[in-house]
Amino acid sequence: MSLAPSLPERIARTRADLRMGVPVVLLHGDGDVVALAAEGVSRARLADLRELGAVHLAITARRATTLSARAYDGDLARLNVPASAGVEWVEAVADPADDLTHPMKGPFSSLREGSATPARAALALAKSARLLPAALIVAVENGAQLAAEHGLTALQVDGALPLMADLAPLADVIHARVPLSVSQAGRVHVFRPDDGGEEHFAVEIGRPDREKPVLARLHSACFTGDLFGSLKCDCGPQLHAALAQMGEEGHGVLLYLNQEGRGIGHANKMRAYSLQDQGFDTVEANHRLGFEDDERDFRIGAAILKDMGFASVRLMTNNPAKIARMEDQGITVTERVPLVVGKTAQNAGYLATKAKKSGHML
Ligand SMILES: Nc1nc2c(ncn2[C@@H]2O[C@H](COP(=O)(O)OP(=O)(O)OP(=O)(O)O)[C@@H](O)[C@H]2O)c(=O)[nH]1
Ligand SMILES: [Zn+2]
């Protein structure tokens, strides 16, 4: 009998700690580290980390490129945090908000020695906590002992990294009838991943025949567009047009995937919007923040479709990557159903960038 949390549960706990600004211990054969999310780091915590040893700031190669810092570790850089640097320095490196007003942030020196794997895990955890992808790290001698002494969560990096890259199993927790304006025959399913991540929803309209391709939409959450009527994107009109077409045909399935801001989270999407007001396009803004163009995991959508018994879809999308990801995951896309609605003066540039840089068929 063991009441100890499993590895997926430990990952969830580590993520929650980082989000709260609590340090965590990452255990690794080549050397343990204490890690702390850079976002919102307090003076006291930074001082505590310095007591443990030399502090480094792990950032993604995307962010390093913007800062003209060397990324010796390929996908990331471990910057030396100067002894004189305070929390303002950490925030300014992690967050591009004032890049234009303070363009000369360097020069930076980066760590070359030692394994970058714990730093990589810290960044993956920060991303999955929907924080800025930047983490303070300090190498420590006996991480497990330190964690026990201070009541910190300790995580084995070698087990956690591959598990985080895998798709977390999803359970169909509950489904219930919800009459909708587009169709009385609406049913909403709630899917919950076993890694403590966000729940996703499936809206089933009618009773689609599982033997035939179903009219399907994979919608990514957009709180500004879906709820507030934002004119900066086309999400709200796409959501409503997709449901309306399913209502007209009598059958369909709309997945509402909680991957806000193409998977970077609410706060980071608003940071991206703020950068867009400084003149960067949607892709450049993601890169400056340290993210890839698109951080979504469409395996989730494919897994939900399969769980519901759907093997082939008529996919409502303009995004060729969505079609490719479905096919990769064994969902046959028999037809692409275009979904071009909601063009506004304010989103013309956004849509043009999607067409130019992401290959959208608009
Ligand atoms: N990071 C970031 N995310 C954005 C921005 N504008 C919209 N989003 C997010 O982008 C996602 C839009 O997803 P979808 O509607 O599935 O659009 P898509 O991938 O372009 O594909 P289709 O609509 O199927 O053609 C949502 O998660 C939005 O929150 C932005 O400027 N930056
Ligand atoms: Zn949107």
Automatic annotation (TrEMBL):
Binds 1 zinc ion per subunit. GTP binds at R217, L218, H219, S220, A221, Q238, E260, G261, R262, T282, T317, K322. InterPro entries: GTP_cyclohydro_II (IPR032677), RibA (IPR000926), RibA-like_sf (IPR036144). Its EC number is 3.5.4.25. Keywords: GTP-binding, Hydrolase, Metal-binding, Nucleotide-binding, Riboflavin biosynthesis, Zinc. Zn(2+) binds at C222, C233, C235. Residues 176-338 form the GTP cyclohydrolase II domain. Its cofactor is Zn(2+). The active site is at D294, R296. It catalyses: GTP + 4 H2O = 2,5-diamino-6-hydroxy-4-(5-phosphoribosylamino)-pyrimidine + formate + 2 phosphate + 3 H(+). Belongs to the GTP cyclohydrolase II family. Catalyzes the conversion of GTP to 2,5-diamino-6-ribosylamino-4(3H)-pyrimidinone 5'-phosphate (DARP), formate and pyrophosphate. This is GTP cyclohydrolase-2. The gene is ribA.
